[in-house]
Sequence to fold (580 residues):
Amino acid sequence: MLIGGIEAGGTKFVYGVANENGDILERLICPTEKPEITLKTVYDYFASKNISSLGIGSFGPIDLNKLSDTYGYITTTPKPYWQNTNLVGAFSKLNIPIAFDTDVNGAALAESIWGASAGLKNSVYITVGTGIGGGIISEGNIVHGMLHPEIGHMLIRIHAEDDFEGVCPFHKDCLEGMASGPSFNKRWSLRGENQELPENHKAWDFEAYYLAQALVNIILTLMPEKIILGGGIMNEKHLFPKIRACVVSLLSGYLNSEYILNEIDSYIVEPKLGNNAGLLGAISLGKNIL
Amino acid sequence: MLIGGIEAGGTKFVYGVANENGDILERLICPTEKPEITLKTVYDYFASKNISSLGIGSFGPIDLNKLSDTYGYITTTPKPYWQNTNLVGAFSKLNIPIAFDTDVNGAALAESIWGASAGLKNSVYITVGTGIGGGIISEGNIVHGMLHPEIGHMLIRIHAEDDFEGVCPFHKDCLEGMASGPSFNKRWSLRGENQELPENHKAWDFEAYYLAQALVNIILTLMPEKIILGGGIMNEKHLFPKIRACVVSLLSGYLNSEYILNEIDSYIVEPKLGNNAGLLGAISLGKNIL
Fold:
């Protein structure tokens, strides 16, 4: 059985087919041009494949409400030509089940099937880059609620030594405003610092402090069995021990959990799916509706 | 069909039977004496009833891990005689399915079946009293994760005018440390203020600010369709509009959701089940495993 997947990104579409075990059999890339061009290229590909289902993990904002007239659409994106684009509808003629979700929900699901949280019913995947986003698997289900998680905008305490005002256009100093890539770059370039900051620079203490607070609040809300941190900023691997230490410190011994007390190194971890995370995310969504 | 329920509290046990519609047919109360006395009283009652299942909503801490040797136990409570008490085991001779959970998870479930969040798959019930606890229904399931939510210990920003250090023995100034009943009483009695504080006292602004922050972080994580606030402190009904206004203000227009923009009065609400919430919580747990 073949499953199709589309990682719909703002600069490129990655698509292909895999078997049920997540073995990718074909993987293609095309640039994100106008929808009529890109979606035709991708449609034509899948029309020639005998896939049982299709998963789409998309950049946003997207409409995930199945009762909505614009379910399956990319909605108010600043990306030229892509506002109000019916992504799911472009593939309806395939006459197969189509799953549609955020890219980060796809990544969270794929990691929980084939990756770092494989076999666990409760896990969280967080990407820290241009934005901060999270996908949550709780009791075996992707959490949507009335929309989808927006953990990037959580409220955090500001570090006593940090006088940066933050870059979030809505909240200034929410998590994304203080710990995203653009926040990081603006804060330190404003101060005339080289952006290749050494590992002992306080920039990383601030970063770890903000991310750790979000993790603590997520732990206390969802009690996940594993937290996976990905995205560009997390390529700074020395952040992991800093974040782990800060989580343990902020919890102050409250949670008498072996995961946290004795296994923090395997509790807060890197993703396992690497460069294929996006495509496997889409494929896991496709697998999930079969 | 009859369902049995036990609300196991530190001062009294409330127990009885209901039908599947949550109509309570019998409701009894006995004081929480030594386990061998209280549990025998309750066991003898149910042994004479033809119930199909039994739900127990208990004070904590309790062991909810079904793989654990002490699943179904009240564990390290300071309550005399009740440490390491096998609550579920005391009813095993009934030979019926027994559901066991926290009292607040039971209340969250009951509200989602018969109460303020009836029919919704995503809701949160928070009790604000001696402690602050939360029960979460996400995608139709009670959220346990590796334990159960402990939202009372979330990290919050301290109000600029509040110099109270907080009462949490672990974190000092977490949510429970700054907004629970004991925190409230200690802060204002230290200041020589009468505990009957007028509605325009800044005490309520602090309280609303702290609770609203927790709600905002919960909204951004779980996107619930309804938030229910109960517990002793929420009997101060004037807190509801203050909390709603503060949630809207803290979100700063970020979430383009009708629930929050236009329906905040029916989004953050009082419980509906009143004095029967605890018993109906237990009964809903019992119904849930049938």
Remarks:
- The mean pLDDT of chain B is 95.
- DSSP finds eight helices and twelve strands in chain B.
- Helices of chain B lie at 35-47, 103-114, 175-179, 181-190, 202-222, 239-251, 258-261, 277-288.
- The interface with chain A takes residues 122, 134, 136, 138-139, 141-158, 170-171, 213, 216-218, 220-225, 250-255, 257, 259 of chain B (CB under 8 Å).
